[in-house]
């Protein structure tokens, strides 16, 4: 009953005309930011901050939250349409979403992404409202050993992401791990592999690699084909809507993705991204036709999109119940709260119930806004694909280059992305898939950091990984998965299933 | 209020008197760029935007924020040091960028704080506090903690928001002054560290007030003392570490800097206007809500303060042999 009453308080706040307007404004701004790779949500929100001080705190936070979802959703749009994943969690969406677009099913892919996100957002909101405290407790159980074990499991799972050869997928994971080693060691503050270049001391930005190997690599490869070949996938655009069969395929995938997202989203740092990677791997493992993944399987869009969105929802839990930000956008929201005189923390729920529950219910309102906003836009986005490639690709390049530059206002990142474009083109030609590389690159440093922190705290005792139940379970799972992949008999069967395209 | 108005008037008059040169009347001729060496959205960035907003209104020219994050604020400060000293590029720097990193890892820091940069004015101090997870440490006061640490050398872990931050060096200073040994567990930033504090993965920390205070009030963590010289304004009941270890102080601070060679008139005028901003009651309120104490110093005072901080942290770094080669 409490839950209903709380939701009632929340909806009273979030459904007021003024807050609806700000939710809409936020969702729209967020979509724009997400679709234009040249604008990052953080830079935009930071620019908007001073003007937000004059708003009611509740309205301001609702708008910020709207920007957050909108940007996430907009990022998926570009991932599907032009293979530009704006953030780590939409890398997975690009895998099958872009392939769907290439087969003329961009509309279906976009609609699936929107509907799966909305479904996941609805469930996610309910989960946040009902289970915030127990899920917070889960986050506390996750110390360094658990994180390390989770990353290990994720890395083993990364191999499943690839639709091509196992050896190539492994090579890409390892390359990703190596690239992730370029940074300043957190434990000792010694710069590694930076060769005295100050820009490398913080490591290469994820966006630089993603844009380079995914987007630019794809563009060069496209330009290498004869023009009539290049535009063929645009001309045969069929139906803007998913078919009945699509719904039938996508719905269970979306449900599984949502559940995974709700659980993993709570973990600060890697939640939504791990959720989308994991749900993709799960779908592929469960599917009767795993060979369709990577070639435009609708489950490969629905599951990660749902996971990503419900993860984005539950990743608000640590912020709502503890005042601890789990992402840069949330840090910004917390900054805004303090500036507006609300001290974020566990007491917000009792001192500001209107704001607390209003924010939670506005998540759902924001998701609804996104669907309302984006379903009609699908037609326009698909039309965008009919723009001749010779006009489209310079525009994509320009926006991406601006986006890369604004990461830290430094041309170095742009040169770096250019170098990765060449690498990405080579990968494309040689049939190496970039997704496992990205996963290795993102998870590797986190795994290393947590491994070392765990050992530091256990004073060098490796048994810490198997004596703690959560960490032990994940290590067992990872080893089991590894055995499955490497056992010759199974691996032979695997090769039959995961045959190379040629 | 009256006092504030008075000091506003005084600083305005001083500004007028000490300004015979042309540069003063003309500056700023164009958009002024404030380089913030941290990512957008952090506390420092938000503070910079609050002050930038004031400067923009006061000088009638745009003051834009450019975030140049990286290498523990070294990248952004280095860019300020390299900029043309015409007053159109200024920057923000903190304890770690000016007083700690140049000595902790001199090979990687391409500027000498007081040679390549002109301190303009310090605008805030952010107190660190000593917080423990009382489920992990059976102590109720600083003397009890010291005693416990002496009995269990190296067995207790403390979290910090990174190597070379004021939080890290606060704990080093604490160990040196008490003759104890605690294991350092660095995190990239405070957020994860606070989660681990509450979860009991690390037992103690010196960190900023804002992120910790709600959990102290919620009963999950225990604040033993503040790392300020005197008791802090946010809670007079909490003792200062200095009451048990005379001279112990570890605060984070932020201030404006300009490239060396920037005309004195411009530096003074900028300093006067930032000071005026920091004395406004609404600024003081905004800063205190974010856990920081608004301060307003002259360029000279800021330079002296930096020099003193450099000497202090240099000794700690050398004694603990922390320097990164």
UniProtKB/TrEMBL annotation, chain A:
It holds the Pfam family TctA. Residues 20-439 form the DUF112 domain. InterPro entries: DUF112_TM (IPR002823). Keywords: Membrane, Transmembrane, Transmembrane helix. The chain crosses the membrane at residues 20-49, 108-132, 144-162, 203-223, 319-342, 354-375, 387-407, 419-444, 465-490. Signal peptide: none annotated. This is TctA family transporter. The lineage of its organism: Bacteria, Pseudomonadati, Pseudomonadota, Betaproteobacteria, Rhodocyclales.
Automatic annotation (TrEMBL), chain B:
It holds the Pfam family TctC. Residues 1-23 form the signal peptide. Transmembrane segments: none annotated. Keywords: Receptor, Signal. The keyword Lyase does not apply. InterPro entries: BUG (IPR005064), Bug_dom1 (IPR042100). Belongs to the UPF0065 (bug) family. This is Tripartite-type tricarboxylate transporter, receptor component TctC. It comes from Propionivibrio dicarboxylicus. The lineage of its organism: Bacteria, Pseudomonadati, Pseudomonadota, Betaproteobacteria, Rhodocyclales.
């Amino acid at each position: 009953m409490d839950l209903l009453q709380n939701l009632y308080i929340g909806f009273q706040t979030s459904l007021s005309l003024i807050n609806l307007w700000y939710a809409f404004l936020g969702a729209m701004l967020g979509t724009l930011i997400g679709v234009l790779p040249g604008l990052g949500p953080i830079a935009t929100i930071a620019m908007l901050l001073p003007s937000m001080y004059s708003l009611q705190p509740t309205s301001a936070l609702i708008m910020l939250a709207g920007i957050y979802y909108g940007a996430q959703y907009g990022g998926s749009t570009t991932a599907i349409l032009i293979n530009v994943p704006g953030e780590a969690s939409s890398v997975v969406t690009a895998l099958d979403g872009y392939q769907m677009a290439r087969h003329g099913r961009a509309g279906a892919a976009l609609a699936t992404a929107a509907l799966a996100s909305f479904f996941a957002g609805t469930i996610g909101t309910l989960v946040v409202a009902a289970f915030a405290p127990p899920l917070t407790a889960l986050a506390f159980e996750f110390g360094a050993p658990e994180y390390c074990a989770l990353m290990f499991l994720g890395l083993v799972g990364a191999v499943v992401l690839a639709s091509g050869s196992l050896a190539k997928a492994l090579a890409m994971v390892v390359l990703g791990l190596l690239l992730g080693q370029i940074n300043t060691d957190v434990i000792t503050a010694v710069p590694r592999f930076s060769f005295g270049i100050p820009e490398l001391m913080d490591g290469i930005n994820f966006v630089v690699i993603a844009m380079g190997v995914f987007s630019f690599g794809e563009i060069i490869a496209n330009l290498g084909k004869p023009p009539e070949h290049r535009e063929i996938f645009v001309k045969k655009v069929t139906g803007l809507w998913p078919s009945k069969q699509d719904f039938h395929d996508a719905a269970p995938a979306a449900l599984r993705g949502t559940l995974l997202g709700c659980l993993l989203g709570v973990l600060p740092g890697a939640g939504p991204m791990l959720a989308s990677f994991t749900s993709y791997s799960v779908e592929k493992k469960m599917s009767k036709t795993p060979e369709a993944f990577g070639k435009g399987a609708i489950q490969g869009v629905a599951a990660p999109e749902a996971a990503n969105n419900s993860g984005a929802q539950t990743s608000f839990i640590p912020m709502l119940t503890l005042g601890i930000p789990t992402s840069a956008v949330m840090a910004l929201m917390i900054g805004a709260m303090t500036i507006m005189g609300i001290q974020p923390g566990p007491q917000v729920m009792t001192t500001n119930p209107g704001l607390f529950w209003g924010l939670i219910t506005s998540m759902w309102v924001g998701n609804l806004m996104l669907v309302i906003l984006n379903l009609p836009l699908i037609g326009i986005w698909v039309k965008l694909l009919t723009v001749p490639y010779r006009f489209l690709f310079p525009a994509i390049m320009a926006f991406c280059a601006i986006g890369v530059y604004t990461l830290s206002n430094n041309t170095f990142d742009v040169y770096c992305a250019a170098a990765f474009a060449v690498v990405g083109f080579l990968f494309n030609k040689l049939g190496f898939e970039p997704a496992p590389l990205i996963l290795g690159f993102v998870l590797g440093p986190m795994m290393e950091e947590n491994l070392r922190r765990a050992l530091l705290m256990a004073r060098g005792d490796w048994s810490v990984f198997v004596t703690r139940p959560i960490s032990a379970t994940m290590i067992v799972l990872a080893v089991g998965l590894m055995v499955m992949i490497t056992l010759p008999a199974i691996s032979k069967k695997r090769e039959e299933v995961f045959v190379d395209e040629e | 209020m009256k006092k504030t108005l008075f000091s506003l008037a005084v600083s305005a008059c001083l500004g007028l008197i000490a300004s015979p040169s042309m540069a003063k009347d003309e500056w700023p001729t164009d958009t002024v760029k404030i380089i913030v060496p941290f990512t957008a959205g952090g506390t420092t960035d938000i503070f910079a935007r609050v002050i930038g907003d004031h400067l923009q209104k006061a000088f009638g020219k745009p003051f834009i924020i450019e975030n140049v994050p990286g290498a523990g604020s070294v990248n952004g400060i280095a860019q300020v040091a390299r900029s043309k000293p015409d007053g159109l590029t200024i920057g923000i720097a903190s304890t770690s960028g000016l007083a700690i990193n140049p000595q902790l890892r001199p090979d990687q820091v391409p500027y000498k704080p007081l040679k390549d940069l002109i301190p303009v004015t310090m605008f805030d101090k952010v107190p660190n506090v000593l917080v423990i997870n009382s489920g992990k440490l059976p102590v109720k006061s600083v003397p009890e903690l010291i005693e416990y640490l002496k009995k269990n050398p190296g067995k207790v872990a403390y979290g910090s928001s990174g190597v070379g931050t004021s939080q890290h060096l606060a704990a080093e200073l604490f160990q040196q002054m008490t003759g104890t040994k605690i294991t350092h567990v660095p995190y990239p930033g405070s957020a994860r560290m606070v989660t681990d504090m509450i979860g009991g993965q690390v037992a103690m920390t010196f960190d900023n007030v804002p992120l910790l205070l709600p959990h102290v009030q919620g009963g999950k963590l225990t604040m033993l003392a503040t790392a300020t010289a005197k008791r802090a304004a946010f809670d007079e009941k909490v003792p200062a570490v200095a009451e048990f270890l005379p001279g112990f102080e570890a605060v984070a601070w932020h201030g404006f800097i300009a490239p060396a060679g920037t005309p004195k008139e411009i530096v003074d005028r900028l300093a006067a206007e930032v000071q005026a901003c920091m004395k406004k009651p609404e600024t003081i309120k905004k800063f205190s809500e974010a856990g920081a104490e608004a301060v307003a110093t002259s360029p000279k005072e800021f330079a002296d303060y930096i020099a003193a901080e450099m000497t202090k942290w240099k000794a700690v770094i050398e004694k603990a042999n922390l320097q990164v080669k």
